[in-house]
Structures are given as structure tokens and as C-alpha cells.
Amino acid sequence: xxxxxxxxxxxxxxxxxxxxxxxxxxxxxxxxxxxxxxxxxxxxxxxxxxxxxxxxxxxxxxxxxxxxxxxxxxxxxxxxxxxxxxxxxxxxxxxxxxxxxxxxxxxxxxxxxxxxxxxxxxxxxxxxxxxxxxxxxxxxxxxxxxxxxxxxxxxxxxxxxxxxxxxxxxxxxxxxxxxxxxxxxxxxxxxxxxxxxxxxxxxxxxxxxxxxxxxxxxxxxxxxxxxxxxxxxxxxxxxxxxxxxxxxxxxxxxxxxxxxxxxxxxxxxxxxxxxxxxxxxxxxxxxxxxxxxxxxxxxxxxxxxxxxxxxxxxxxxxxxxxxxxxxxxxxxxxxxxxxxxxxxxxxxxxxxxxxxxxxxxxxxx
Length: 365
Ligand code: NAD
Ligand code: TYD
Hints:
Low-confidence stretches: 359-365
Structural class: alpha/beta
CATH class of the largest domain: Alpha Beta
CATH topology of the largest domain: Rossmann fold
Shape: globular
Bound molecules: nicotinamide-adenine-dinucleotide, thymidine-5'-diphosphate
Strand content: 15-25%
Order of helices and strands: EHEEHEHHHEHEEHEEHEEHEHHHH
Largest sheet: 7 strands, parallel
């Protein structure tokens, strides 16, 4: 059987690069990776694939219709997997415009190109084609402490500009299915962690700061709850959805692993104490800083549709995944330095310099 080609967008970012690695490792498909290489995208993430003949990297924007049209025409993919996005909530608070441009306008351009291409396919290939929109649980808004986790039927109630831009994109994906019949799939996943996550996100930031004896900045009281999923489990779920998901459906993906931010930071401190006893106790570095504006209190995912329809279960426990992630960052100091150069330092100043530290201090002992 001929190996299919997939157009992956945003494949040089965190989840996209893990996805591309696993797709190529297992030989599921040839991959064309279209990525704009923003501050979050790095060719280093996929440097081991430079000699892989089943992998093509294209530097470009999902909002560039003529480029996308030509990639579809030349590579004839059987699926488009859209990871490309501005993805950091804090950046969306400082500057939402880029989120609207890529997440909404860019995704819409990609949909227009996908529709043109899909209409050009002969019957069999058209019915096998899939457009997979990789989205987030943040579109559902915030849960109270006793609310049932998000199901696919929850109302969209996004609170941050990031979440609103992803919600808008999801609505457009739905509309292209309902109106034009484009065979779309949408996944809404919880917080991912693991290798290649940008050092400005919670877990890598805490690992980096803890290792270099810098403060561990916890927003507000740190009791905000997120559901966490190891990135490879997300990638496995995406492949299953692509191969066996029903066109027009949405699937919630999560780790059944709710944790308060403060608990995560303390779990990391314990791992750091074991790995670097000279810095112990790392919990002395925990510093409560001003809260994020509009900070959602709790996300949780009911992934029973994924279990029931596609037989998917996360395989990595949080303890295993966190320990592995800490080791990965320790062993990839060169990668961290490369992706942290320049713009990252400016972001750290922009995001943290005016936050101060607040009266609550759960860490100092
Ligand atoms: P990321 O920020 O690490 O990577 C995004 C990638 O998209 C980068 O490589 C960037 O260069 C690229 N990109 C940005 N704008 C582009 C454009 N206009 N054209 C082409 N490429 C562009 O993000 P991530 O954490 O890997 O998330 C990937 C996707 O998964 C996003 O759509 C995000 O909303 C979704 N998601 C993320 C999480 C999470 O916990 N990280 C959870 C659920 C869903
Ligand atoms: P983040 O990794 O930005 O993901 P998201 O906002 O998409 O959930 O943040 C995860 C949680 O950690 C979120 O509740 C905000 C919090 N957080 C901190 O407390 N301190 C930090 O320095 C960062 C980056 C995040």
C-alpha cells in the first residue's frame, strides 16, 4: 500500500514537532511541514529529519493562499493537520492581533485552500480526505470546582483572546463541514507537556528557573487547575482521530489528570531536589506574582468519547511524564539555549518585570 502524504502546519512547534517525529518514526505518512518559524517554531526541533526523504520542510505562512494551493497541488496530501497557531495565553493578553491573524484569518485561508483542493479530488480520494483542526479545551471557558469536566457538548465560552481566536477557528471549521461538506475533524485537548515545549510555558519555565536558582513565578494563589497530558499521548490520539474519526465530529482529549499549578511546581521542586541536591530545597524559590488577567480557574476534560469510539487511553502517568520531561530538559541544554536566544529574554522581561511578588508566599521555608 502506498504511504499517504500529510500536510502538517506548525510542525516546527512543540506538539507539531512531536507529532512529525512520531509519524515519521512509525512511517504512517510522508510529511510536508509548513511553518512560519515564529518565536515558537524551530527547525532544530526536527533537525534529525534532514536526511529523511519522507519529510519536507517549507518555511511559510498558513495565510499565504498561493503557497498553500501550490503545496496541495504538488504533494497531493490525504490530510491536513493544522497545528499552526499563536498559542500562549499571556502573549494574547499583551498583543491579541497576531492571534486573530494566524488563528482566525490564517485558519480560514487554509480552509479555503483545503476546500478548493478537496473539490478537485476524484471521488475515492475526496471521501478519504480529512482536515484536522488541533484545538484546545480553553474554548470551553472555566469550570467551577464541582462542575463536570468538559464534554464535546459544552457551550463555547472562551475567556482569553487566545481561547477566543481558537474558538473562532473551530467555528469556521464546523461551518466548512456543515456548509460545504469538507470532511473536517476537530480535537480539543488539555494542557500538554513534554520534550520541545517552549521554555516560556509553565513546566519548562519552572525547570529552567529551578535549575539556575531563579524564582519560580506562580500567578496569583496558584490554585488554578489544569488537566495535563503527556505530548506523545496527544499525538497518538490525533493519529487515531485522523485514521478512524468520523468526519464532522469533534473529540475531547485529556489526561484525566487535574492538578493545581502550585502542586505541579512543588512536584517539580521535589524532582529538582533529587537531581540537584545542592540547590535543595527548591521550594524556597516559589514566588507568588500578580495573577494573569481573566485567569481561568479550572479546566478538566471528559475524554470518554475518545475511549469509547476510538479505544484511546493515555499511556504515560503524570509522575513518569514529569520525571522524563525534567531529564529531557537537563539533557538538551543546547536546545534550550538555542530557542531561548534574544526574543525569549525580552519576553521574560515583558511578562514578569511588572508583576512584582505578592504577599502570598507558599514556597519559602
Ligand atoms: P507552539 O506555539 O509551540 O507552535 C506553534 C507553531 O506554529 C510554531 O512552530 C509556529 O512557528 C507555527 N506558526 C505560527 N503561526 C504560523 C503561521 N501563520 N503559519 C505557519 N506556521 C505558523 O504551539 P503548540 O503548543 O505546539 O500548539 C500547537 C497547536 O495545538 C495549537 O494550535 C494550539 O492551539 C493547540 N493546543 C496546544 C496545547 C498545549 O498545551 N500546548 C493544548 C491543546 C491544543
Ligand atoms: P501555560 O503553560 O501558559 O498554559 P495555559 O495558560 O494555556 O493553561 O500556563 C499553565 C498554567 O500555569 C496557567 O494557569 C498559568 C500558570 N502559570 C504560572 O502560574 N506562572 C507562569 O510563569 C506561567 C508561564 C504560567
